Amino acid sequence: MFKIWAKVVRGEKIIKQFTYNGEDKLVYSQFFNYLAEICSQLDEPTPVLLKSHIFHFAKYRTVRFLPRDFVEAVEFDKLILDNIL
To answer: Distance between CA 27 and CA 77 in Å, rounded?
Structure first.
């Protein structure tokens, strides 16, 4: 079981947040599915997921998506995903 805390940040304030609870252990090949579900719950577009995003999440247990990582225009400064225990 794992948890991912997603935060939508504008300036220095969290404007939306969601905690994703995974049933099994974290599988990095399914990371896009986790990301899509999180963005759906936050009612935000899904960013483009690169291999570097997955590596950063695996190594540091956090990843940040900036507006340049989205195809659509977004109204926030960053989307942060943290792996919490």
So the answer is: 28
From residue 32, give the alpha-carbon distance in Å to each of 15, 17, 48. 23, 18, 9
DSSP classification of residue 79: E
- Taken as a whole, the chain contains a residue count of 85
At residue 39's C-alpha, the angle toward residues 82 and 15, to 5°, is 70
Residue 23: what residue type? E
Nearest CA among 64, 54, 52, 57 for reference residue 83: 57
Give this prediction's pTM: 0.92
Q: What is the pLDDT of residues 46-64, one digit of tens each?
A: 999 999 999 999 999 999 9
Measured between its terminal Cα atoms, the distance across the chain in Å is: 9
